[in-house]
Amino acid sequence: MTVGEISDKSKAAFQALAPLEAVLFDVDGTLCDSDPIHHIAFKEMLLEIGFNGGVPIDEEFFIQNIAGKHNDDIAAVLFPDDIERGLKFCVDKEAYFRKLVKEKVEPIKGLYKLTKWVEDNGLKRAAVTNAPRPNAELMISTLGLTDFFHHVIIGDECERAKPAPDPYLKAIELLNVSKDHTFICEDSVSGIKAGVAAGMPVVGLTTRNPEQLLMTANPTLLIKDYEDPKLWAVLEELGKKAGDA
Q1: What does the alpha-carbon distance between residue 235 and residue 221 come to, in Å, rounded to a whole number?
Q2: Alpha carbon 220 to its chain's center
Q3: Which of 144, 177, 201, 210 could crosslink 22 through cysteines, CB 3.0-4.6 Å?
Q4: Is 81 tagged catalytic?
Q5: Does Metal-binding show up as a keyword for this record (predicted)?
């Protein structure tokens, strides 16, 4: 399966969701293209402390070691000999990120078309993220989606963060919906793995991560953004099934 096609298996997985009850969304890279802002924050702050001999981290390093990962894991990669320092660095970086977000955050193309569809169909919805709560709530409010989400689930507030399934399982519990009637939107390998482990179909967005990388986590469908005709083909089919029910 590539971005250009829908497999029969994917179609069947979505058709089996009828009647659809809920949609769960990651935040970074899924609601908004925030990875470049994270990259800027990490790059500038790591340069200040002479990380990597003063050579700025490139996009490849960012994708492999930072994007979509929990701060505990990032701290271990950046400061393997001093995890405490790494965790403190990540806290400071998040504060800098929040400053940048207000100026730079943009919704993923077609996001509001999908959120309107979700609302029009009376579906429940939650944001599920490894981001710290202040970051997640700031991005959601900057996008005008504070009232859209019924819950915001934070990886740190669960037993385990993504790639473990715990945050997604907590979301369906709080929404009081079945995983058999819920799908997930994600953009990272870590997030897709969490959704798959939670037993729900995952729509993977190729916002920043290469399609081949995302495929290693087994998404049900890969799309470029929320205007992708493949997404609307499966949603319209689901809508028809809801009408038949």
Answers
A1: 12
A2: 15
A3: 177
A4: no
A5: yes
Residue 1: what pLDDT? 46
* pTM recorded for the entire structure: 0.90
- Is 90 exceeded by the pLDDT of residue 158? yes
> Which member of 8, 26, 35, 81 is catalytic?
26
Taking the CA atoms of 110, 115, 116 and 121 in sequence, report the sign of the dihedral they define: positive
Residues 230, 6 contacting (CB under 8 angstroms): yes
Q: What is the pLDDT of residues 182-192, one digit of tens each?
A: 999 999 999 99
**Per the residue annotation, which of 28, 33, 35, 166 is the catalytic one?**
28
72-106 pLDDT, tens digit each: 999 999 999 999 999 999 999 999 999 999 888 89
- Note if 28 is an active site residue: yes
Q: How far apart are CA 222 and CA 16, in angstroms?
A: 18
Q: Where are the alpha helices (DSSP H) in the chain?
A: 8-15, 35-48, 59-65, 71-78, 83-104, 111-120, 133-142, 166-175, 189-197, 211-215, 229-244
Alpha carbons 189 and 219: distance in angstroms, whole number: 9
